[in-house]
Amino acid sequence: MIDYVQVLNNNKAEALFYYQNNWEQLRIKAIEKGYIDSYQLLETQPTEETPYSFMLITTYKSKLQYHASEANFNMLIEASDGLKLMNEKQPGDFRKVILHNDAVKHLN
Predict the structure, then answer these.
(1) What CATH code would you report for 2-101?
(2) N or C end: fewer C-beta atoms under 10 angstroms in the chain?
(3) Does the pLDDT value for residue 93 go beyond 80?
(4) What's the superkingdom here (predicted)?
(5) Spatial distance between the Cα atoms of 63 and 14, rounded to a whole number of angstroms
């Protein structure tokens, strides 16, 4: 699964903080519990043609693991200490997922 994220209103620090302290922490726990196979948080330089700053990649070992991901992540979110934000800005203030692709397959 890949999300392409655009930073809004020049809030790159807030977006990075959000992904490192929420998205990434959930994936660390998901790996420990066997809910996902791997993840990557990648940064890129946005352009007019590709206006995103971050690519969020989550991989699964199987379709079964993928189909259970929503329930598994909901359990992790419920068990967490809540959303961590920089400068009290809400996610909609600093980021926009401009493309979500969950039809990605490994070619071996």
Answers:
(1) 3.30.70
(2) C
(3) yes
(4) Bacteria
(5) 33
